[in-house]
Every structure is written in structure tokens, then in C-alpha cells.
Specification:
Number of helices of chain A: 3
Number of strands of chain A: 5
Largest interface: A-B, 53 and 56 residues
Largest sheet of chain A: 3 strands, antiparallel
Helix content of chain B: 40-55%
Largest sheet of chain B: 3 strands, antiparallel
Structural class of chain A: alpha+beta
Strand order of the largest sheet of chain A: 1-2-5
Oligomer: heterodimer
Strand content of chain B: 25-35%
Structural class of chain B: alpha+beta
Radius of gyration of chain B: 19 Å
Chain lengths: 93, 98
Amino acid sequence: MTKSDLIEALAGGQAHLALADVEIGVKHVLDQMTEALAAGERIEVRGFGSFSLHHRAPRIGRNPKTGEAVALSGKFVPHFKPGKELRERVNNG
Amino acid sequence: MALTKAEMAERLFAEVGLNKREAKEFVDAFFETIRLALERGEPIKLSGFGNFELRSKNQRPGRNPKTGEEIPISARRVVTFRASQRLKQRVETYAGPR
């Protein structure tokens, strides 16, 4: 299911909202989620799951072509932990 | 402070102009639609944000950490999230808690 499929499915179930409004809503929610994570904030949705940041320590990487060592600084990566209801529904579906 | 459904709905109300009931229903439906697709075995691809994928895990041996007793962990289907390049880039530069 792509973003446009999601928008269509939502519009089908929310007859009072025009497709264009659903599209704006979906983008707005995804932007809120992106901005929260970019600010180091967690996202918690009961029954769905939580998003947080995990830290990656600085390390010495290698350029795979030349074999040259490259110093890579530490960074944060997004992490998703599925909630109980999502885990159970996906496993029984 | 974590971002919750209540805050998402509040901002849909304040910034997009849905009324409060519509905004709450919208956020609930957003996550429920994704759950329903995953439940059907359908992965979700949200361009610019990330993909929710499904993986099948075989049965593997486990252990009750309290008693040390061996119990098999049954075969199961799990959800994984792969962040998009864009989301990774947005998050990478976060300086950490100060």
C-alpha cells in the first residue's frame, strides 16, 4: 500500500472529507512525525507502536573502492518498535 | 514529551482546520488503515517517510530468563520499519539531548 493508496482508503472511510483534504491530512501527520523525530522527540501511538532514535557510535569506515579508512562521526537513526496490538494482529492475520 | 495521537489531532485542528472530532477520527483511521493492510500481509510504502515491511520468522529455541527453562519461540510474522533516506537524513544531524 503506497501513500496514495492510503489516502484513497482513508477517503473511502471518511465520506465527509474530500480527497484533497485527506491528502493534506496524511502529509501533515507524516510531517509532524518527521519533525518530531528530527527534534529528538519520541512518537508514541498506543496499539500501533513507538518511534524513537537510536545512537550509532562514531567509527572508522572504509571506502569500499579504494580501501582507504574514513572517520565517520556518531549519528542518530530512526527506530520503530511495534505495539502489542499491531504485533498480535500481524501475527494472527 | 512524546508526540501522541492527541497532539497530532490537535495540530490537524489548529493548522489544517479539521474540526476536533474529524481530527481525532482522522488520526485513528490513519493508523488503523495501516494496521489493517499489515494484518492482510500488505507492506506499506510511505514515500519520504519509510516502509513498514513484514518478515516471517521460523521457530527458534528460547529460554525463560527467570527459570532458565528452554521453551521454543514459535514461528511468527513480524513488522519491521525501514526509514527512508529523507527521514534518515533529517534525524542524523540531531545533536542529542543536552
